[in-house]
Amino acid sequence: MADQKPNRKKNALGRGLGALLEDSPSKNKSEDILPEAVKTGIFEISLEEIQVNPYQPRTHFDKEALQELAESIQVQGIIQPITVRRLDQNEYQLISGERRFQASKIAGLEKIPAYVRTANDQQMLEMALIENIQRENLNALEIAHSYQRLLAECDLKQEELGDRVGKNRTTVNNYLRLLKLPPSIQAAIRDQQLSMGHARALINVEDVDKQLSIFKKAVEEELSVRKVEALVKSLNETKASKPEKSGIDPVRKYELNKIQQRLASHFGTKVALNANEKNKGEIKIPFTSTSDLNRILELLDII
């Protein structure tokens, strides 16, 4: 990582990607090789001469979406050039635009329009992270990892990071807290099985086993964010009231309530379902008349 003065680096980052590019140090590997006139600008560059960005925060590219972009490129061409830095003669490295780069390969292009800029490793990291975050094309977990890298590798505080990416401190903190979730939940966020809303609710469950139990139910039953929040609230309220050890687990209580609702719908009358911590209990089905009783018995296939 290049040795840059911290104040200059942070100020450049605060002014956006353009400032980072303009403030790039005058010394670069290619400067002793290339004349001034060809160091920066827009050029048609061979795809074979471009390396991927090692600082790219996006870890997953949807194959179907890439194919759709490739088909669009075959018809419309590249509308927005990618951005690269020059490493050496006929050797470049991506700064931003990897989806366009990969889709162009699929589309069978040999060359691609590119902005050629001068940037050191530190600026590469900052530009790649911020460019992707600002485009909002990362999933919640990738954003969280990007924030963490900006804090750790660019020596920023949360307040400073919020200013850089246009988010308040609370939002930044919510993303960073995702990294404290169990690996299986993080994987579900990455694979878009869980939304940021689901994840924020699960973060508030301290007990990992309870957290995983609610997570599993949320995925299997495709629960809405509101229902997950209700489960977490019920769990936390039960904990706050210090129930007896024999109390029914909130997740189990939620399951029993759903069964009770299904029974009530099936029999067309209010049904009482009671169970204890040992899964023993009773079901009460009230009836209002002899004909109502016969109706329930028919549903039970008793008569």
TrEMBL record:
It comes from the Bacteria. GO terms for cellular component: chromosome. The keyword Nucleotide-binding does not apply. Keywords: Chromosome partition, DNA-binding. InterPro entries: Chromosome_partition/occlusion (IPR050336), HTH_ParB/Spo0J (IPR041468), ParB/RepB/Spo0J (IPR004437), ParB/Sulfiredoxin_sf (IPR036086), ParB_dimer_C (IPR057240), ParB_N (IPR003115). One of its GO terms (biological process) is positive regulation of sporulation resulting in formation of a cellular spore. Residues 1-29 are annotated as: Disordered. The keyword DNA-binding applies. Residues 43-133 form the ParB-like N-terminal domain. GO terms for molecular function: DNA binding. SMART domains: ParB. Belongs to the ParB family. This is Chromosome partitioning protein, ParB family. It comes from Algoriphagus faecimaris.
